[in-house]
Amino acid sequence: MTLKRPRAAMPESIRRELDASGLMQSFKARPPYQRNDYLHWIGRSVRTATRRRRIDHMLAELKVGGVYMGMAHRPSKPK
């Protein structure tokens, strides 16, 4: 799959959050466009509180599975 946006580099702080929460595999299992969208979305936040809220949102979606940016995502739903 070719991404239309430039690929976002994963900040070390997000890598640590994913590792600490045990969700790195869930993140890596998502399609490239979703991983890229999450990283760009978090990276665009200006305020620290907004960044925290977005990271928490991503982690919650990865934990529950089956949802992406508040929308149903059947391929990532746990079986």
From TrEMBL:
The record's listing under Pfam families reads:
OmdA (PF13376)
**Listed name of the protein:** Bacteriocin-protection, YdeI or OmpD-Associated
> What organism, scientifically named, is this protein from?
Bradyrhizobium pachyrhizi
> In terms of domain of life, where is this protein from?
Bacteria
